Structure formats: C-alpha cells, structure tokens
Structure prediction request, 733 residues.
Amino acid sequence: MQRLSRRRFLKISAATFGAATAATQWKPIPGLAVASGPAAEKGIRTVATFCEQCFWRCGGIAYVRDGTLWKFEGNPKDPQSRGRLCPRGTGAVGAYYDPDRLQRPLVRVGERGKEQWKAVTWDEAFTYIAERMQKIKAEHGPESVAMFNHGIGVRFIQHVLKSWGVINIAGPSFAQCRGPRDVGFTLTFGSGLGSPEPTDIENTGCLVLIGSHLGENMHNLQVQEFARAVERRIPIIVVDPRFSVAASKARHWLPIKPGTDLALLLAWANVLVTEGRYDKAFVEKYGTGFDRFAAEVKQYTPEWAAAETGLDPNLIRATAREFAAHRPATIIHPGRRVNWYGDDTQRSRAIALLNALMGNWGRRGGLFLAAGVKVPAYPLPKYPASDKPLADNPNGERYPFADEAVTTGIREATLNGKPYPIKGWFVYSSNIMSALPNDAETLKAIQALDLLVVIDTLPSEIAGYADVVLPEVTFLERYDELLTGWGRQGWISLRQPVMEAPADQKPGWWMAKQLAAKLGIPECMPFKDIEEYLSWRVEKAGHSWATLKAEGVIQGEKKPITVEEGLELHFDTPSGKVEFWSEQLAKKGFDPVPKYRKHAEAPSGYFRMITGRAPVHTFTRTQSNPLLQDLMRENEVWLNAATAAKLGLANGQYVRLKNQDGVESDRVKVKATQRIRPDTVYLVYGFGQRNPMLKGAYRKGANAAKLTTRYETDPLMGGTSIHSNFVTFVKEA
Ligand SMILES: Nc1nc2c(c(=O)[nH]1)N[C@H]1C(S)=C(S)[C@@H](COP(=O)(O)OP(=O)(O)OC[C@H]3O[C@@H](n4cnc5c(=O)[nH]c(N)nc54)[C@H](O)[C@@H]3O)O[C@H]1N2
Ligand SMILES: Nc1nc2c(c(=O)[nH]1)N[C@H]1C(S)=C(S)[C@@H](COP(=O)(O)OP(=O)(O)OC[C@H]3O[C@@H](n4cnc5c(=O)[nH]c(N)nc54)[C@H](O)[C@@H]3O)O[C@H]1N2
Ligand code: SF4
Ligand SMILES: [Mo]
Prediction:
C-alpha cells in the first residue's frame, strides 16, 4: 500500500486498496446491518463496536462502504465517547489497513532476536508451544510459565493459561502506570480509582492538574469534560515543568522543578491546615489521625517548598486558597501515569490527603463513586490450586502494598531463578521491551527462557525476540469479552467484528480454544464459539443480545454516586476511616504521613528527561498506522530556547540524545521553546521503533525507553520510575 494522505484516504476506494495489496484480502464481514437514514441509500453498512486504540474503550460505529472500511466514528449512545472519538480512534481505520501487520504464525529459525522466521500453520504453532509448555511443566511446574498482558483481548488466553496452572500474570498498566496512584488512594480511602477515573470534572468548581496533561493525554470523556471546564472559565491550576496544552488553558501555571512535587503538595496541606481551610466536618466524621498529620505538615511552609520547587511562595499560598474556596466541588486530579520518581505512592497519597481535606470524596464536583453493572459469569471450571508463592512478590514480602502483580518482579525472578525458575513467557498486547524500564535487563531475562510466545497485531520490538509469533486480528475484526464499565452509570459494551481478517490472523478467543485443546484441557473452553458465550452472559443479565449487537451499548441502572444523590460513605481501610496518619504504613516501617526526600540532580551538562503523550499516538502501538503517521511521523526533543541558544542548537536541527550511562538515541529534531524549564527536556514516548519489519516507523525519532536505563523502585508496591534519567546532546556531523 502506498502512503496515504488523510484527505486522500477519506476518498479512497476499495479498488485502490485491492490493487495495492494483492496478497491481502480486505473484506467486510458478511451480513452487516444496513445503516439507517440517508446512509442506507448509499449502501453504507454499520457496526457498533468499541475502540482498542487505547484503554479508554470508547464505543464507536464503523461504516463500511462498497466493501471498504470507510470510517470509524463515536457512538452517541456510548458514555465513554458521547458520540466523538479522539484522532487515534478515528485513525483506527489505518490500523486495519496497516501494511506492516503480522500476517501468519511465525516460528523462529535463527538466533533469538535475529528475525529469521519460518511461516507455519496455526496447528504447527500450537503443537510447538504446547510441547515446550509441557516440558517446562514437567521440569519445574506450571508456575514457571508467566504472562505479560494489557487489554481486554487477553481474557480467554489468560483463562486457558490459568486453567493449565499459570499463576504469574502482570501488566505494565500497574507498576509502570497507575499502580502507585491506586495504592496511595487505597491506603487513604480504602479504595483505588480504577479506569475511567471518577473525577466529576463536568460539575467541578476548580481543577488542579499535577502532570496530567489532558489534551495531550486524550482519554476521551475526560478531555471533553476538561474542554467544557475551560469554556465554563473555572479556575484551572496546572503543575508541570512544561507549558502543556492544559497549562495553556489554565489560570495558574506552576513550572515546578521536576521531582519536587511532594514538597508542593505538603506545603499546600500546610496552608490548608494552618489557615483552617479544610472540611472540618468531613475530617471529624470520617477521618483518623488528623492531629498527627497536622503536626507533621507544620514544617512544610510555602517558603520552605519554594526553595525545593523553584515556585513563588505567594503563588503556592494563593493557589491553595483558590482551590480550597470551591470545596467540596474541587478536584486535585489523582493523575494516571504517576510512575515518575520511585516514591510515587507517597506522592499519590499526598494527593489523596489533599482531596480528603477538601471533603470531596463521593461529592458532586469532586470524586464520585463509580457505579457498575452486574453480568453473571459464564460457568467455567475452577483453576487448579498452587502451593507456590507468586514469583514477583512472594507472600507480599517484597512489595507489601502491591495489590496487583509487578512486571519487573517477574523479570527479576526470571533473571535470578528465585523463588523458582521462570522458563516461559506469554506476551499479549504489551511491548515490554519498551514498557518496562532498562531493556538490557528484559533482554537478559529473555535469553534465560525456553519459550517466548508473543501475540501481537504488529511486528513489535518484543515480537522480534519471540520463539513463536501469533498474529492477532485487530479489534475491528473480532469479538472479545464483554466490557462491563464503571462510571456515572454502569454500562455494557460489545466488541464485534466489522471486517474479515485480511490474511491468516485470528482472534484471541479462537487461539485460546486451540491452545486448550493442544494442552489437553478443552473442557476449560466449554462453549462452541464466543457468540454462544457472550449471548449467554447478556441474556442471563436480562438484556437482549440482538439489541446489544445492534446498539453496541446497554446502559445500566442509575444509582447514587454522590452524597448529594443519597450515597452513604464507607471506607474500607483497616480503621474504617480516612487515614490521615497510617497505622498500616507505620507497621511496615514506612512513613505514616508522606515525608519529603530529595531526588538525584542532573550531572553538569545534563538535563532531566521527562516523557508524555502526543494526542495522535498511543504508546508504541500506532506509529506504523499510515493515517496517524500523516499527523505525526516522529517526535521532537523539547528544550528551553535559552538553553538551546547557549548550546548552539537551532530549532529543527537534528541531534542525538545521550544518557548518563552512555546510551545514544536515534536522531531527533530539536524543538527550542519557551514552553519548558531550562533544566528539563521532554520527549513523547513511543517513537524510534526498533523492529525493522515496522517499515514506516523504524528508527523515526528518539526512543525514550532506550534512554530509560536507570529506574528506582517504589518500595511500597514495586512501581518503577521513568523520569530518573538525564541526557545530554550529541550534534549530528
Ligand atoms: N494521546 C494519548 N493519550 C493517552 C495515552 C496515549 O498513549 N496517547 N495513554 C493513556 C495512558 S495509559 C495514560 S497512563 C495516560 C498518561 O497521561 P497522564 O496521566 O496525563 O501522564 P503524566 O505522566 O501525568 O503526564 C505527563 C505530563 O507530566 C509532566 N511531568 C513530567 N515530570 C513531571 C514532574 O516531575 N512533575 C510534574 N508536576 N509534572 C511532570 C510532563 O511535562 C507532561 O506534561 O494517558 C492516556 N492517554
Ligand atoms: N519509557 C516509558 N515507558 C512506559 C510509559 C512511558 O510513558 N515511558 N508509559 C507506561 C504506561 S502509562 C503504560 S499504560 C504502559 C503501556 O505499555 P503496553 O501495554 O505494553 O503498551 P504498548 O507499548 O502500546 O504495547 C502494546 C503492544 O500491543 C500491540 N497491540 C495493539 N493492539 C493489539 C491487539 O488488538 N491485540 C494484540 N494481541 N496486540 C495488540 C501493539 O502492536 C504493541 O506491540 O507503558 C508504560 N511504560
Ligand atoms: S480515547 Fe481515543 S483511542 Fe482511546 S478508546 Fe477512545 S477513541 Fe479510542
Ligand atoms: Mo498508562
């Protein structure tokens, strides 16, 4: 397929695609619903399904015209999209037509990582996998096969592996993303926040963003609510070393020195407590340990914090007063990717405590308590019991407050064989060569494996190291497990196929069924196909399968989600209260109230490297998408204009970045700008792809993950930091 411009793409016909990709069959699923209204006359057919371009899971409607997947738009009935998709969602059409897609199962023939493959049949692939799995089981037990995954599509493969005895399963969405936040909130309020975040931005009177670059982070509904908050002209306070898109909409931008946020948060707490600007009734009724907390934050004055953060003490005071004036309809946003410096659970706890001082838990305009829907589980056989501990965190001794598995813990167990050897990895929809810090460690662990199976849609970097690559169809070609969403109202969403697989790709549930048969446990997948499974669940829940197929979404009942609506508050902490001073942390030897500690500073001539998102790409999963490439092909390195001048670097000039350990990036353009502090550089994560089979994206831009050789591990829950590295500039000859 030749490169398509966005405009041309919208006009393109089936014939063009057909001609350009003779070996590939781009065909719609037969029997699609005919669209209603004027579209029907044009022979347009539609399917409602939900997006997998990121994990916000917006409901959309796919349009098929003359056999071509024509467009993907928001489903107005869907609560996550409200009828509008972000650019990555709209660009999902390009994921289907991506010329770099994996086409058929591959088995490695050469050395690991050398990318020499033999195309095999699905049956041969599963025979190969099952034989090696049984050998590992015989020698070490089934616990010695581990899994990394992300996304709803893994449901049945994970189920088959668990039925076979796998217990070690982790995703980067915990230790490399929102884990520290959810643990920090659980330690304080007794429950985490989950996804989508229950922030009532729609009704809030004031919004504080710490990092959280909404508008670049494109989580759909949240960005829609944020846009309306901007229109409503509510005060927005943004704390970011970089003048983000969100900062450009804010009343106050606090250009904090990276790594010092906890100093600001504690100083804000100091102002609120010493000036009595907190919700005394809430603290009295629901809190415990407030006096000890208040005594602890006494030392953290705005003047003290000014020296740490580089912020004006008067601005620290003024912003605390401003957000406190709106309580309880005020939000100190909990963030999402909070794994910045390795002490992120305590920083998140400080954010939780500020929200507690605002009394906004379960309040309109604050943090509401999300409602869900009940859908009966399909009756499936129980998983076998194991007498071994989890490898990442044996008996919870390594990371006492981790409530999910830790990816790097499994990597470590693989490297050192403790508490027992790990000999096989399944990787589903997770590019762990990039998503985990320090890829040299990941590579070393891979070389210790007897089996690495990668299930992906694209030749990702991790797929390049696999023994077996299983090509999955994209989300536009498959059914997945039902989505039962939590939000202002619970909902059920259906993912269903729009187009046929263009080559020999298969959906996860189908792979699971084949694998179960090969492993001799077909009884764990007792349904004929996934439609039987899904329709059973939907109908048992009292809904119509036909309606769900037609509409894509079914709303759950309206339940109270705020105190204003009649909600009663309960806190699932050990004390049953909001824990301002934490006994459970004290018992394990951690700070019961967050304490400020300094982080390492950049060596002379180096800059701290921080990362974030571009609105039109997701992590490492969209860079080869022809439509999204048209919008952004490579990243740039943001550098303060004055610093650039001092270093003799011009805007648009290509440079390489070199980190403190001597690792060099591919060439990347300088963006010399006033929009970032002089001591910091910024890169969008996900570029500089390293699998040559990803032709369009190969080595385009700087790969932030390769420069992330150093990391710190959060002792509470195993989160790993991403912003602990420093880079300098190497000029291109
Ligand atoms: N378009 C797009 N949207 C996405 C995604 C995507 O891949 N693409 N991914 C989704 C996912 S899974 C996640 S987790 C979220 C992540 O999105 P967020 O949770 O918003 O991520 P953050 O790390 O908070 O945001 C990065 C911002 O933090 C700033 N920052 C860096 N260091 C510091 C610091 O020390 N202090 C402060 N105060 N700010 C700092 C950066 O300058 C940048 O503006 O985005 C989601 N939305
Ligand atoms: N250095 C650095 N590391 C980070 C981050 C960062 O900002 N910087 N962000 C962190 C965050 S917030 C998160 S949530 C994680 C995300 O980490 P991951 O979940 O690992 O995300 P991706 O890197 O996008 O890897 C997704 C892989 O899934 C494949 N894929 C896409 N769709 C499908 C599908 O339908 N089926 C299958 N089988 N495969 C599919 C893609 O081709 C890609 O190879 O990374 C974390 N790691
Ligand atoms: S936010 Fe965008 S990419 Fe994510 S699910 Fe929604 S439309 Fe898809
Ligand atoms: Mo994330």
Notes: The chain has 25 helices and 26 strands. Residues 52, 150, 153, 172-173, 176-177, 337, 428-432, 434-435, 455-458, 460, 472, 474-475, 611, 618-621, 685, 704-705, 708, 722 surround MGD (ligand 2) (CB under 6 Å). The CA atoms of residues 103 and 503 lie 5 Å apart. The first helix runs from residue 6 to 11.
